[in-house]
Amino acid sequence: MIKCPIYRQKVGKYTYIVKALSIWDKLKGRSVRKVIERIGTIDPDTGETYYTDKYIEELRKEGRPTENLKSWEDARRLKKYTTAQRCPDKNPVESEAGKLKKRN
Q: For the whole model, what pTM was predicted?
């Protein structure tokens, strides 16, 4: 894994903690920050910092303390609802007789 500085990246009302590299852009004539990976987020309501499980595991392998770090899962990558939960009218339900029928 590349050792990168850690920055805060503000996206709308959310603040993410990211590993990023500064790379020289010849066209712009200045350095630009290239985000390597998101390693956490800061809760906009409470201000608490949450880290990804992958980053916490990486710290453990390096022998650094991780007891007080809170875990974060990127909600965009989780499937909160199945199609059946979002559209109950379109979900076939098994009747008492064991046959499938459409829910009314």
A: 0.60
